[in-house]
Amino acid sequence: MAELYYESDADATLIQGRKVAIIGYGSQGHAHALNLADSEVDVRVGLRSGSASTKKAQSAGLRVLPVADAATEADLIMLLLPDTEQKAVYDAEIAPALRRGDALFFAHGFNIRFGQIVPPPGVDVAMVAPKGPGHLVRRTFTEGAGVPSLVAVSQDASGKAHELALSYAHALGATRAGVLDTTFEEETETDLFGEQVVLCGGMTSLVQAGFETLVEAGYQPESAYFECLHELKLIVDLMYEQGIAGMRYSISDTAEYGDLTRGPRIIDSRVRETMRRVLDDIRSGAFAEEWIAENRSGRKHFDELRAKGAAHSIEKVGAELRAMMPFVSAGRERVQDVSGG
Q1: Predicted confidence (pLDDT) per residue in 11-70, tens digit
Q2: Which of 24, 92, 174, 305 is the S-S candidate for 149 at Cβ 3.0 to 4.6 Å?
Q3: Do 160 and 14 contact (CB within 8 A), yes or no?
Q4: Which helix (H) or strand (E) holds 154?
């Protein structure tokens, strides 16, 4: 069994003795900065010139500096920009400021795992990755709870990088819920696999295919939307709260029998083999190379795929039905309010 760490396992004074720069003030950035500040950590936020997040951070009572200045002033830098933007900012504004004894932290291992960022010797390199969106990391902290997190060490120059990562997780509120040891490789590869195969790629493709199958068979698009997309939240919430077995206990016997007998026919040996090939692409670096090349070439293919997805008929039907159900999007504006980069 993996080892879990809680509040008694962390030394809060380690992070309180550091000057921390949070680079980025999006969903995760705002939560990290505010939680650390409330935990009596010396925090400043590094933002690029003209960032729309500057006023948000300042109005929250945080010091905002240009990225290079924040990196120079700090001795622990948490990089919370989008994966595709981290390398350029690191190379230009963070790398020149790094000194022996500094620490470079991440909340996702992509750029370290795939060699886009190569920190110098003498610098601790670690990860603290909350398993939840930033607004939840912040909200649970203010309520006296926390979101479980992962910690990992890629480079232990000081001999205390793991202890420092735990201390950071403590200030974030994560040790209230539990912190799990991992590696940069494991976190990155499982995260990408989960996104591509289940949480995003697999789920959206399954929903669209189910919708299309019903509509092609002559059923009303509205009925297909309710059955294949709208009710998905009910099932996911049950699994989130009670696991798969708990979800099956809560649904009808008819639904459970259909689940147990027809589910394996959908996710069959061919699908599992495709999953293994997707994982191979992730582990070999093929996906990372493809995504990096896509960004360097201007994202033309990505934009085409995005536009095609937005034009799918399920989006038009869904927009019309959601307009009849304002309760569906309740709280959406509050979440979006803290998602700016």
Answers
A1: 999 999 999 999 999 999 999 999 999 999 999 999 998 899 999 999 999 999 999 999
A2: 174
A3: yes
A4: strand 149-155
Contact 121, 151 (CB under 8 A): no
Instruction: Name the stretches of the chain with pLDDT < 50.
Output: 333-341
Task: Please state whether beta strands 4-5 and 179-181 pair in parallel, antiparallel, or not at all (unpaired).
Answer: antiparallel
pLDDT at 236: 97
The residue behind tokens 């926390």 is 146
Q: What is the mean pLDDT of the chain?
A: 95
Structure tokens at 144: 């006296």
Please report the pLDDT score of residue 265 as a whole number: 97
Nearest to 252 by CA among 282, 225, 276, 231: 231
Measure the CA–CA gap between 282 and 288, rounded to whole angstroms.
Answer: 7
Question: Taken in order 78, 81, 84, 85, is the CA torsion positive or negative?
Answer: negative
Quick one: how far is CA 307 from the chain centroid?
23
Task: Locate all alpha helices (DSSP H) within 252-299, ordered by sequence.
Answer: 253-266, 269-284, 286-296
- Catalytic machinery residues: 108
